[in-house]
Specification:
The RecF protein is involved in DNA metabolism; it is required for DNA replication and normal SOS inducibility. RecF binds preferentially to single-stranded, linear DNA. It also seems to bind ATP. Belongs to the RecF family. This is DNA replication and repair protein RecF. The protein has a domain of 178 residues: Rossmann fold (3-Layer(aba) Sandwich), CATH 3.40.50. 44% of the residues lie in helices and 23% in strands. The radius of gyration is 22 Å and the shape is globular.
């Protein structure tokens, strides 16, 4: 899979842009604040119908315009598929093959994208919410079922929390409706937890090989899914459902008192273990960077395994954050494998030596021109 063409109208600092990309490495070259990251953001937006930098879609609209549009053509194994997302005052419209999609969840998965930016180091050393978001975004691309269960879980969770807050002010609360919501939440939650564990085992397999290579055989990387259930309670969707139901029963009085749901996959975490130590807490900065790089590169192979297509890789100023050894491993791993977009202020050193026949685009104040690197 790769992005053949991209068209932007009133998106960030791009008034009108129409560009064709190469199926290999595309380098976006320019000084800071010229629009390099904005271009990557538009590709991410085309894939997910949302930005990775803001939750307000109207932040994406050029300040001189009222609406914005992102169009792209993706090439899959046997066909080209046009995609389009419009941002208007009334909301978003997403189209596949010029047909508007009734739900955005039906749109996601058309273009698979992996973004790697300096802040992605927070996957390892950041808060649990960062890792949960990472899991949901990446696994949601690979599995419509996971995306559906996550959406339904969030909807029921919102209703349950609202009802719990109402019960706080009632002397004799009616718990029948709470039990109905709890059953629904446990059902969707069990599906999510079971799929997360299965996906993480596959991601761990690919990550271990890469991490072992980068560390020259000195380190072994493992993943641990952190939840209130014991491992033997997570062998099936049914056992997870039963376990969650029992936990909800024990927590019910406390949840009513505090007015919020206190257990479930929305509070779970992933622990990265290197040589039997939690790398998030006890790892060196080098180990944390290697772990983040291993996980990101492993996503490429896992996505190909799950969908039959390699994703598009977006590297936003990440080369400057990696030493020569990790740069070499990254660029060698992606060469002739996935379409890659790299933002940088200069293509030099290891990158210049390792990237074969890149398509180089100079960006200056939202103006993009392809050049030939000598």
């Amino acid at each position: 899979m790769y992005l053949e063409t991209l068209e932007l109208h009133n998106f960030r600092n791009y008034d009108d842009l129409n560009v064709e990309f190469g199926s290999g490495v595309n380098v976006l070259l320019g000084e800071n604040a010229q629009g390099k990251t904005n271009l990557l953001e538009s590709i991410y937006f085309l894939a997910f119908s949302r930005s990775h930098r803001t939750n307000n879609d109207h932040d994406l609209v050029n300040w001189e315009g009222h609406d914005a549009r992102v169009l792209g053509t993706i090439r899959k194994k046997h066909t080209s598929v046009p995609l389009e997302i419009d941002i208007t005052a009334k909301g978003k419209k997403a189209k596949v093959n010029h047909l508007e999609q009734g739900k955005l969840s039906q749109y996601i998965g058309q273009l698979n994208v992996i973004l790697f930016a300096p802040e992605d180091l927070s996957i390892v050393k950041g808060a649990p919410s960062v890792r949960r978001r990472f899991i949901d975004m990446e696994f949601g691309q690979m599995s419509p079922k996971y995306l559906y269960n996550s959406s339904q879980y969030r909807s029921v969770l919102k209703q349950r929390n609202q009802y719990l807050r109402q019960l706080q002010f009632k002397e004799h609360p009616d718990l029948v409706y709470l039990d109905v919501l709890t059953e629904q939440l446990a059902a969707f939650g069990a599906e999510i937890v079971f799929q997360r564990i299965a996906f993480l085992k596959k991601l761990e397999k690919w990550s271990q090989v890469i991490h072992n290579e980068i560390s020259q055989g000195q380190e072994i990387l493992r993943f641990q899914y952190v939840m209130p259930l014991k491992e033997n309670q997570a062998s099936s969707v049914e056992s997870i459902y039963d376990g969650l139901q029992n936990l909800f029963k024990r927590q019910r009085d406390k949840e009513v008192q505090q007015g919020k749901t206190m257990i479930g996959p929305h509070l779970d975490d992933v622990r990265f273990i290197v040589n039997d130590k939690n790398v998030s807490t006890f790892g060196s900065q080098g180990q944390q960077r290697t772990t983040a790089l291993s996980v990101k590169l492993a996503e490429i192979d896992l996505m190909q395994e799950e969908t039959g297509e390699y994703p598009v890789l977006l590297l936003d100023d990440v080369l400057s954050e990696l030493d020569d050894s990790r740069q070499t491993h990254l660029l060698t791993a992606i060469q002739n494998k996935v379409q890659t977009f790299i933002t940088t202020t200069s293509l030099s050193g290891v990158a210049q030596q390792l990237i074969n026949e890149p398509h180089v685009f100079n960006i200056n104040h939202g103006d993009l021109k392809e050049t030939k690197e000598e």
